[in-house]
Design a protein that fits this description.
By secondary structure, this protein is mostly helical. 64% of the residues lie in helices and 3% in strands.
Length: 145
């Protein structure tokens, strides 16, 4: 319901307030959700889905920007290999760009084997395209392309 309230509020005011990503390790507090002096808070992923559904380019751009601003080397792999990312090529590309900009960071080099293993066990079937894109870009980097 919070996303609908936020969407209606945005439609009238062009103001939006996004909650943290779950992968950031900070849960939304009651104050985040119930602060009536601010626009209703909502998930940037939920709002991205709604923007896609209702063809709102401006709202989609706001949600993408918010998601991108919340990416870090600590949460990028969890985000990259999520069901949400697997459904939206624009999000996938943005997150792959982030990974490759930080590819040598220890959070990514240490964390990647865990996700590859999960994919190998069949736990991330929805992420097949993400893995293909990742491997393709890795091969391209190694071959100098």
């Amino acid at each position: 319901m919070d996303s609908w309230n936020a969407l209606v509020f945005y439609a009238y005011t062009h103001q939006i307030r996004f909650l943290p990503l779950k992968s950031q390790g900070r849960s939304a507090t009651i104050a985040d959700v119930q602060d009536t002096s601010e626009p209703p808070a909502c998930s940037p992923k939920s709002m991205y889905r709604m923007a896609m559904k209702y063809d709102s380019t401006e709202l989609k751009a706001l949600a993408i920007s918010d998601i991108q601003s919340k990416l870090s080397t600590r949460n990028i792999l969890e985000e990259l290999f999520s069901r949400f990312t697997s459904r939206y090529p624009e999000i996938q590309t943005m997150q792959l760009d982030f990974v490759f900009a930080h590819l040598k960071h220890s959070d990514i080099t240490a964390g990647l084997p865990f996700w590859v293993e999960r994919f190998g066990r069949g736990e991330l079937k929805e992420c097949t395209d993400t893995f293909l894109q990742l491997v393709g870009r890795l091969v391209s980097n190694v071959s100098g392309g």
